[in-house]
Amino acid sequence: MCAFGPQTVQPTSQPTHPVAQGSSPADGGGGLTSLDQLETPVDRTSPVDLVTDAQEDQTVAQRRLHRPHERTRCRVLAAFAESGDPTLQRRAFKMSECCRWPAVSLSPQGQVHTSLGRCRDRLCPLCQTVRSNEFGARLRDATMTWDSVRHIVLTLAAQDAPLADQLDHLQASFRRLRQQTLWKRRVIRGVYSIEVTLNHKTGQWHPHLHVLIEGSYIPQDSLSEAWKIASGGSRVVWIELMASREGAARYVSKYVTKPSEIGGWPADAICEYAHAITGRRMIDRFGRRPSTPVDIERENETPAECTLRVPVHRLLERINEGNRAIIAAAETLARASRLIRLAIADDLGGPIADWTIRPKPPSQDELIAAYHALAAEFEDDAPFATRTHEPGPAPPPPLTGRQRPMFEGGWAMRDG
User: Fold this and answer.
1) Most confident of 40-49, 128-137, 396-405
2) What angle, 0 to 180 degrees and rounded to 10, lies between the N-to-C axes of helices 163-178 and 220-231?
3) What would you report as the CA-atom Rg of the chain, rounded to the nearest whole angstrom?
4) Are residues 113 and 412 in contact, defined by beta-carbon separation less than 8 angstroms?
5) What are the tens digits of pLDDT across the range 143-168?
6) Angle 69-72-74 (CA atoms, 0-180°, nearest 5)?
7) Counting beta carbons within 10 angstroms of the beta carbon of residue 356, is it exposed (0 to 12), middle (13 to 18) or buried (19 or more)?
8) pLDDT over 90 at 209, yes or no
9) Is 195 helix (H, G, I), strand (E, B) or coil?
10) Can you tell me whether residue 191 is helix, strand or coil?
11) In this predicted structure, what is the pLDDT of residue 324?
12) C-alpha span between 81 and 173 (Å, rounded)
């Protein structure tokens, strides 16, 4: 069982620093046996200790939000914290704080927005899942105006080179491919994402590109020959016409993150992967720019219309007090967003906590009623209901450009 995993601890608001063994009962221990324990304080300032303490002091909502990916998150945190690399250890501590103080924002018109306080680390399974959903939604909108959508896979020959070098070579080869006459004549524009897999038997990395293009027919033999020239020897390619734009977007966006696979990698491979993708665009567009942006580096901010902000831990307090109006409002919010449901469903119980059942999305009237119920309870509870940010990771800067909702499994869901 992983020492960094949330499954081994219980939520607590008390400090987790151990009391020196042998101290007096008044000091919280059981009898002083050595002055050295008082003269030499316990060192709990190392990154590994800080991550351990943060994991042991998780909030209820934080533990629940990360529960679907707890094994992978545990694995990544342990790899980072024990790497000896100060940069990765700082990332581990920031990841351990991810979603510590989530909140729900509502508008009088029934708009719902979840503010999770995410760490936004590329190896955080929850953050990457949100990014994947966001990318899929934007990519779907971008491809709706394309005449035809084709999916291309470009691979490199297996080699023992470091992952960073292979990624450099892969991206440079793709740039050379786009300069060839075949590509320029047949491809108008497109979007690519990089997937990285690891062969556990050989220890070799296998980076490859998933590309969606708008353009005319390209014979696979011609594409293979062009890729061989561009990559310096690799010939393995795949191209197919996608019948559904939504299916194409969903197919490619799933490669933005594969958290279950990363969780099975050795610790040194996780650290190498983390360094290799730092500062690197794993998703990008090319050719004629689409009218709809697909860059997922931008994050959704809380809409200005959402004037009521309720921290989830305060919502859980009211639920456990048996406040019927708040319970009804919370059930409505849980039906509106999978993330909210994940954070509060255990306390609500009943059908909403049954994950084999997909609840019916609430109507706008139900969401407006939920807003008024929460406003009546929390508007006078300042600064908790209207606090801009709870303690946790620093919020992202305000965004420019059009903001849009995400969709996961048919549920409208915003996340920042």
Assistant:
1) 128-137
2) 120
3) 25
4) no
5) 878 888 899 999 999 899 999 999 99
6) 100
7) exposed
8) yes
9) strand
10) strand
11) 92
12) 35
Query: pLDDT of 15-45, one tens digit each?
Result: 333 333 333 333 334 433 333 333 334 444 5
Q: Is the peptide bond before 383 cis (omega within 30 degrees of 0)?
A: yes
Q: SS3 helix, strand, coil % of the chain, rounded to 5? A: 45, 15, 40
Residue labelled with tokens 């545990």 = 74
Can you say how many angstroms the Cα of residue 44 is from the centroid of all Cα atoms in its chain? 29
C-alpha–C-alpha distance, residues 288 and 187, integer Å: 10
Identity of residue 29? G
Closest of 218, 107, 202 to residue 161, by C-alpha: 202
The two three-digit tokens of residue 126, written as one number: 């929850």
**Interval 278-324: pLDDT, tens:** 999 888 888 876 555 555 444 555 677 788 899 999 999 999 999 99
List the end-to-end C-alpha distance of the chain, in Å, as a whole number.
32
Report the C-alpha gap between 389 and 300 in whole angstroms. 15
Q: What is the mean pLDDT of the chain?
A: 78
